[in-house]
């Protein structure tokens, strides 16, 4: 995800699941059949440029293995909190899984079957 309006739509209109190291916002656009889009927000509060880029790379790597869980047409924004800078990858992965589970569970049981990215 690269466009500001997509980030804004996911944050303003999507569901939110917060964890100590990250916050995830998910908006599912039912009328869009495109693959899911994921964006990352890592502010200066997390650390300097090197630390921020490292956190983004780690989150991007973790999301690659979880992208299939998102429904088609969805917008996901993952915002890193300051503790993400010192968190181990296993801890970040666990926090990301909990946040995604919460967001996908909120969609309801009738949508659970379509979280594989297919229509």
Automatic annotation (TrEMBL):
Reaction(s) catalysed by this chain's protein: Endonucleolytic cleavage of RNA, removing 5'-extranucleotides from tRNA precursor
Gene Ontology MF term list: 3'-tRNA processing endoribonuclease activity; ribonuclease P activity; tRNA binding
Keyword Hydrolase: yes
Pfam families listed in its UniProt record: Ribonuclease_P (PF00825)
Listed transmembrane segments: none
GO annotation, biological process: tRNA 5'-leader removal
UniProt keyword annotation of Cell inner membrane present: no
Keywords, comma-separated and alphabetical: Endonuclease, Hydrolase, Nuclease, RNA-binding, tRNA processing
A Gene Ontology term for the protein's cellular component: ribonuclease P complex
Domain of life: Bacteria
E.C. numbers: 3.1.26.5
Database matches in InterPro entries: Ribosomal_Su5_D2-typ_SF, Ribsml_uS5_D2-typ_fold_subgr, RNase_P, RNase_P_CS
Annotated PROSITE patterns: RIBONUCLEASE_P
Similarity remark: Belongs to the RnpA family.
Function statement: RNaseP catalyzes the removal of the 5'-leader sequence from pre-tRNA to produce the mature 5'-terminus. It can also cleave other RNA substrates such as 4.5S RNA. The protein component plays an auxiliary but essential role in vivo by binding to the 5'-leader sequence and broadening the substrate specificity of the ribozyme.
Binding partners and assembly: Consists of a catalytic RNA component (M1 or rnpB) and a protein subunit.
HAMAP family (alphabetical): RNase_P
Protein name: Ribonuclease P protein component
Organism: Thermocatellispora tengchongensis
């Amino acid at each position: 995800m690269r466009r500001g309006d997509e980030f804004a739509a996911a944050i303003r209109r999507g569901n939110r699941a917060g964890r100590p190291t990250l916050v995830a916002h998910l908006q599912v656009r039912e009328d869009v059949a495109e693959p899911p889009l994921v964006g990352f927000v890592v502010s200066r509060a997390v650390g300097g440029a090197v630390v921020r880029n490292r956190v983004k790379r780690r989150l991007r790597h973790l999301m690659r293995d979880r992208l299939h869980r998102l429904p088609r047409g969805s917008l996901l924004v993952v915002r890193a909190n300051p503790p993400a800078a010192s968190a181990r990858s296993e801890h970040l992965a666990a926090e990301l899984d909990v946040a995604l589970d919460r967001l996908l569970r909120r969609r309801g049981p009738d949508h659970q079957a379509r979280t594989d990215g297919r229509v």
